[in-house]
Specification:
Blueprint lengths: L1 E9 L5 H8 L4 E9 L3 E9 L2 H13 L15 E9 L3 E9 L7 H9 L4 E7 L2 E8 L5 H12 L3 E10 L15 H12 L11 H8 L3 H21 L12
Antiparallel strand pairs: 1-7, 1-8, 2-3, 2-6, 3-5, 4-5, 6-7
Helix pairs in contact: 1-2, 3-4, 5-7, 6-7
Length: 248
């Protein structure tokens, strides 16, 4: 399996969602799920931002003349259903279902055509940048897919390849003892249970050390070593799109 990550940078006026995100720079959308067949596309997305931005984004989805994922920049006659699944002042969860017509297409439809079945999609939208992460087979024709995508996008968006990597199997620790020493594990567990990592903290380092009946310096050392090891393990894993720094 391989991981393909690329981005589309929409020009002004080519996509109403991109235009709205560009106006509200602190707003972002990430996919919770995305599925495709030759005839349709359905997905669930989670948007976050300030109240005015989320309201404007909701309007952009509902008032657009065409589905946000469609690469055709005009009303193509497709049947697009949008439904709000959850809504607060600063968050929005949207379900979108789209039935294609003969003239419209999308990134997932092109991927299905050129990269084959069994694909996994993850997306993130910030500003005019629409970042895609696709998990695909080693036999997929990447070059043909990008040629087809470039032809469909035209002058509406720039394209940038961000990453193409092999997904080699990773060996996960068989137990937490392989990651942390027993005393480090005990210190972290106690810190969590007594609210040391809460905001605000429910206990400080001296109180926690007294509870464990160990010197404060010893507890501080164990927590630092454990936190460093956990951070290394986190960075070593594949990062989701949320961790990618957008290039604007």
């Amino acid at each position: 399996m391989r991981e393909l990550v690329f981005a589309l940078d929409y020009e002004p006026g080519c996509n109403p969602v991109a235009d709205t995100l560009a106006t509200h720079s602190d707003t972002a959308i990430r996919s919770l799920s995305c599925h495709v067949t030759p005839e349709s596309l359905w997905r669930v997305d989670h948007a976050t931002g300030e109240r005015e931005a989320v309201a404007a984004l909701e309007d952009a989805y509902f008032e657009a003349e065409y589905c946000s994922d469609c690469l055709v920049t005009e009303n193509c006659g497709a049947d697009c259903e949008v439904q709000v699944l959850d809504r607060t002042e600063e968050t929005l969860v949207l379900y979108t279902y789209w039935e294609r017509t003969s003239v419209c297409t999308s990134v997932p439809h092109l991927a299905l055509e050129w990269l084959g079945t069994g694909l996994l999609f993850e997306t993130r939208r910030e500003g005019r940048r629409y970042t895609w992460r696709i998990i695909l087979s080693n036999e997929a024709d990447i070059h043909a897919f990008f040629d087809a995508l470039h032809a469909e996008v035209g002058e509406c968006a720039g394209m940038e390849m961000l990453r193409l990597t092999e997904l080699a199997p990773r060996r996960s620790p068989t137990n937490t003892g392989e990651m942390l020493a027993a005393k480090q594990r005990e210190a972290v567990r106690a810190a969590v249970e007594h609210g040391y990592y809460e905001t605000p903290r429910k206990t400080d380092l001296s109180e926690l050390a007294a509870t464990l009946d160990i010197p404060r310096s010893t507890l501080s050392y164990r927590l630092r070593r454990a936190e460093a090891e956990l951070a290394k393990q986190f960075v070593a894993t594949d990062q989701p799109l949320d961790a990618l720094s957008p290039t604007v």
